[in-house]
Amino acid sequence: MSFPSNLQSGSHWCAFFPTSQSTSDLSPIFRGNVERFLNALNRAGAYVVISATLRPRNRALLMHMSWRVANGLITPQEATQRCANGVVVANQSTVIPINWVHNDPEGEYSEAASLQAAREMKNNYRLVHQPSLNSIHMEGNAIDMNISWSGTLTIVNATGQTVEIASFPRDGSNEMLHNVGRGYGVIKLASDPPHWSENGR
Fold it and tell me: What's this model's pTM, rounded to 2 decimal places?
């Protein structure tokens, strides 16, 4: 496993441990459900962009800690120690040799520089909520995707019936589309716009 040559926190960490965007990395049963739903969407003429499937534990920990440090929920010193000692992520201890502590040009600890580096990571990850350390993305049982269409979406559901969705909005937040997805075993989490999963969490 490779880490950046510069172990201090900052946006350069965000390029490491990328989240997959491929359905082939999903767990076998959920993958089959997702691909059947995607095939139905594609045949109906919907536009689908997948942004995340399987998320590595290391990335989840970095996302989680960048949010906490940037928002003053944990000190840079505490975050450095926790990451070095091991944090339980999806039931597995995860160790990352990242240093969240930054100094000023005189070599003294700089809270401002430390928080700025964490904010850069948080912004680079495009975080709007504190990331979970137990997301089912790490089990391959969730997918983030943006779905849109124009006009009426005529889609075949999991039982082979044709469903016409003429209502607004014409995107993944449409409740009629949620019902179609549920039939395929791909369940929408309404509070998280792109997030679908095996259980709605």
Answer: 0.82
